[in-house]
Amino acid sequence: MNKRPNVFDRLLAVVSEVPSGRVTTYGDVSAQVVGTTPRLVGFALAGLGEDTKVPWHRVVNAAGRISLPADTPARAEQVKRLRAEGVRFSADESIDLEAFGWF
DNA sequence: TCCATGACCGACT
DNA sequence: AAGTCGGCCATGG
Predict the structure, then answer these.
(1) Who's near A36: CB < 8 A, 6+ residues apart?
(2) Contacts of strand C, CB cut-off 7 Å?
(3) CATH of the domain at A20
């Protein structure tokens, strides 16, 4: 009932705006939403859940690298989905934001 | 109600 | 060039 959605919902809305085959960074997402910090972006996605409809896998850190720990199944899932969308990874599993960046 | 932590980023040393 | 520190909002005990 709040006319103004929380930052949480706004972040999800921005992430949902990211087209397929393209990625964005936590910092960029927070930059689109006023009053939000990169930390909240990560925390927001972390609390999403498995049945979320938000393309959280299109969000990576400023280094173009996936933030999730290596022992996290979600990380492998993210890479798998990005590859399916045509996103290419460098030798160290980093993404060229200049080429696949949303902006 | 208060304290501590979190999928980060930027600037400084 | 690499490592360290603080800051922001939200959630949980």
Answers:
(1) A7, A10, A11, A29, A30
(2) A 6-8, 35-40, 43, 47
(3) 1.10.10.10
